[in-house]
């Protein structure tokens, strides 16, 4: 496993590590999912740049939010909490600082955002649960990923209402073989590995992958969206647990 190298308090820009990587970037919808209410996913947030939705995220506590590092390379970041909609409703809060593990936004894609104002917990607003060390979910375990990303790969249509889809955890070795060894232990993979059809996609980046309400992953990247043989790749919360625990 890679060694954690410290904290970086400024935005960084995501750079793909190989030409075939497709980071799940702004403006999209969960593939194969369905409309859900923020009351069922109260930890979900929308990350905004200059008032426009760009990525997802999850609430750690009253002042900190978890997202993906390639979502943070923007100058005017805010988060929307407590809304089923990506661009209206809820409460908007300013991002004050960005904490990262290293300057490599490909591995350990798990930055923490510090907010200027306190999140007021209530109906449709609350923190996500985090896994205990060593609680690695076995392959085939059903997980749920949520966000406002694209319906299909290359589709520019954005989701107005929060989406969610159930996807199985994929064995890390199988995921490494699918991506030619570009997946490491700072990542976790999930998706319909053999058949495709269900996945996170562009615009879902930074959003949570949860198992029974416990967050194990952060939407990061993949080859296309919901393609057979190529599961979605997520930043591993377990791999970055020591880092994240500093803020909770």
UniProtKB/TrEMBL annotation:
- Name a Pfam family for this protein: Trypsin
Q: Which GO terms describe its biological process?
A: proteolysis
The organism sits in which domain of life?
Answer: Eukaryota
Name the protein family: Belongs to the peptidase S1 family.
Q: State the signal peptide span.
A: 1-17
> Source species, please?
Rhyzopertha dominica
Domain Peptidase S1, which positions?
Answer: 30-248
Per UniProt, which keywords does this protein have?
A: Disulfide bond, Hydrolase, Protease, Serine protease, Signal, Zymogen
- Provide the protein name: Trypsinogen RdoT1
Q: Which SMART domains match?
A: Tryp_SPc
Report the SUPFAM superfamilies cross-referenced here.
Trypsin-like serine proteases
Which Gene Ontology molecular-function terms are recorded?
A: serine-type endopeptidase activity
Q: Which Gene3D superfamilies match?
A: Trypsin-like serine proteases
């Amino acid at each position: 496993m890679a060694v954690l190298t410290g904290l970086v308090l400024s935005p960084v820009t995501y750079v793909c590590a190989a030409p075939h990587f497709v980071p799940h970037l702004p403006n999209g919808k969960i593939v194969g999912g369905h409309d859900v209410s923020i009351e069922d996913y109260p930890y979900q947030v929308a990350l905004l740049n200059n008032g426009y939705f760009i990525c997802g995220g999850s609430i750690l506590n009253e002042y900190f939010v978890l997202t993906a590092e390639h979502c943070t390379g923007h100058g005017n970041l805010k988060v929307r909490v407590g809304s089923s909609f990506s661009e209206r409703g809820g409460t908007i809060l300013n991002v004050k600082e960005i904490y990262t593990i290293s300057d490599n936004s490909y591995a350990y894609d798990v930055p923490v955002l510090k907010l200027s104002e306190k999140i007021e917990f209530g109906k449709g607003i609350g923190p996500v649960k985090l896994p205990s060390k060593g609680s690695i979910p076995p392959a085939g375990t059903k997980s749920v990923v949520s966000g406002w990303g694209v319906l299909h790969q290359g589709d520019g249509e954005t989701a107005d209402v929060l989406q969610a889809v159930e996807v199985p955890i994929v064995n890390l070795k199988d995921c490494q073989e699918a991506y030619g060894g570009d997946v490491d232990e700072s990542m976790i993979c999930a998706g319909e590995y053999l058949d495709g059809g269900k996945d996170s996609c562009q615009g879902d980046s930074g959003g949570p992958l949860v198992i029974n309400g416990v967050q194990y992953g952060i939407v990061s990247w993949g080859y296309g969206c919901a393609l057979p043989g190529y599961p979605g790749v997520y930043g591993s919360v377990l791999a970055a647990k020591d880092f994240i625990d500093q803020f909770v």
